[in-house]
Design a protein that fits this description.
2 helices, about 0% strand, about 60 residues, mainly alpha
Length: about 60
């Protein structure tokens, strides 16, 4: 019985430690890098679209 009680008390302490502490927002780690990556993805998508349009135009001209 003592072992079960110790395990239960330990589990309760662990759960209590995982509760809300401060109402501080999470830090925005690597925000600049994420924004740069998003911009690069947008540029990549635009470049692929332009490449596809140019390829179609070349194919139409060669027919």
């Amino acid at each position: 019985m003592g072992y079960r009680t110790a395990v239960l008390v330990s589990a309760l302490f662990l759960l209590a430690a995982c509760g809300k502490s401060d109402e501080q927002p999470a830090p925005k780690l690597f925000q600049d890098q994420r924004e740069a990556l998003d911009k690069a993805k947008a540029v990549d998508a635009a470049a692929k679209k332009l490449e596809e349009e140019q390829r179609k135009a070349i194919e139409q001209q060669s027919q």
